[in-house]
Amino acid sequence: MELTMIMSSPEPIKDQQPQHYGVWGHETIALTITWALYLIGLHPDVQAKLYEETERVFGKDRNRYVTERDLNDLKYLDCVLKLVQHLQSMGFYLELVSSILGGYTLPKDSHFHILIEFLHKDKDVFPDPDRFLPENSIKIPECAYMPFSVGPRNCIGVFF
C-alpha cells in the first residue's frame, strides 16, 4: 500500500523516503539470487560454463579481490543474470502524463500496471522465451527487456 502511494504521488521523493530503497532493493536482490541459483541448478550445462568462466577469470588465486575488470570479463554470468531477470520479472507500476498507447488515449494522471513477464515472453522478439538459454541474452532489442522499469522512478538497481 505504501509503495503504491509513493509511486503514484506527483510529489518528488522526499529525504526520508530513500530508506525504503534498502528494503525494496533487498527483496529484489534476494529473489533474483534465489531464482538464479534455482535455474542454474536445473541446468548443469549452464553451471559448467559458469564454472569454466570463473576459473578463466580468477584462476587459482582465490584470495584476491574481485575487480571491475573481472566483472566485465564475466560475460556469460552477465547473460545468465539477464536471463534470470528476463524469465522472473518483478513487474512495476507506471505513472503517465498524457499519452496514446496502442490507439487508446490515457488521460493525465492515469495509472496502470505493465506485466513485464508478458513483454519478456513475446514470441515475436524471443522465439523460445521459456527456455533457459543464457546466450539469447546477448542481443536483446531495445525496449524488449526492462526488469528495472523505465522512467524517472525506475529501480536504482539498474545502475549496479
Automatic annotation (TrEMBL):
Its cofactor is heme. The keyword Hydrolase does not apply. Heme binds at residue 155. InterPro entries: Cyt_P450 (IPR001128), Cyt_P450_CS (IPR017972), Cyt_P450_E_grp-I (IPR002401), Cyt_P450_sf (IPR036396), Cytochrome_P450_Monoox (IPR050196). GO terms for molecular function: heme binding; iron ion binding; monooxygenase activity; oxidoreductase activity, acting on paired donors, with incorporation or reduction of molecular oxygen. GO terms for cellular component: endoplasmic reticulum membrane. Pfam families: p450. The keyword Magnesium does not apply. It is found in: Endoplasmic reticulum membrane. Keywords: Endoplasmic reticulum, Heme, Iron, Membrane, Metal-binding, Monooxygenase, Oxidoreductase. Coiled coil: none annotated. Belongs to the cytochrome P450 family. This is Cytochrome P450 4V2. It comes from Trichonephila clavata.
